Amino acid sequence: MSHQSALMSGSGTPIDIHQLTRVQDPGLATEFHRWPLPDYIWPALERCYHSIFCTEPQLRISGTLTSHVETWVSRRHGCINAIILFERFKHQLRVLNEVVTLPATILDEFADAVFAIHPDLQIIILHAVKIDGLLTRRMTFAAEVSDDYVLTLPTDKETWQQSLSPRSREKLRNYLRRAQQRAPTFSFETLSVGGFDLSKIKQVLVFNRARMQAKGKHFGMSAVDEHQLCQLMLERGQLSLINIDGQPRAGLLCTRVGRDVFMHVI
How many angstroms separate the CA atoms of 54 and 74, rounded? Predict the structure, then answer.
C-alpha cells in the first residue's frame, strides 16, 4: 500500500545529533552527506530497499538528481541499516525514497536528526512509503493514495504450478494448448538488458496503447513518461514477449533490482 505522509516538527532547542545517538544507542551512528553523494550510496540503497524507484538510474532519468539532493545514513555497529535521500526547500523536506517500507524507528531517528541540525524545518513529506510501526515522537498525517501488489515468487516454475488449484492448472494448460493450435509458431521469451533494443520496447507500448483504446480507456502515459521508461528499460529492463512467426504480438515491460521485479506495462 502506498501512502502520502507528513511528519511535523516539534519545538525545542537544537541538539547535537551525534551526542543524541550515543546516549540512546551506543551502537548507532548517523551521518549526513551533501551533493555530490559518495559512490557507495547507490549500491547500498539497492541492498537496503530493493526498489527501482530509489535507484540511481531511475532518479537520474527522471531528472530528480540535482545538487539539492542530500542523504542521511544510519549505521548500526558499523553496518548500514538505513539510507534516506531527501531535498530541503525553505521549511519543507521531501524524502526521495519511494515504493519502500521504512520502520517507524528509523523515521523517528531521521526526524530527530534533521530537526536537530535544521531547526527551521517544519515538515517532512513522504510519498509512496509504507511506515512499519507507529511514530512516537512526531505528529503525523497519512493518507492512502494507491494500491501496490507485492507477490512473493517461488524458486521455480514447478513450485509455482503446485501452488495453484487443480482447476487453475488445467485452465492454463488449455489456454496454452489452444494458443499453440491457433498459431503453431507461438513462443514465449524473456530478455535481459542487452538482449533487446529500443524498437522492441516501443512495440510493447504500441500494443498497450491499442489495448487501452479497444477498452475505451485513456492511455495513461505521457510522452515524457514513455521516454523515461524506455531509458530505464535500456539500463535495468526485463522484456518478456509472446512471438508468432518470429514477430512480437504481446509483451511485458519490467525492471529489476537484484532478484526483485517491477512490472510497468503489459
Answer: 17
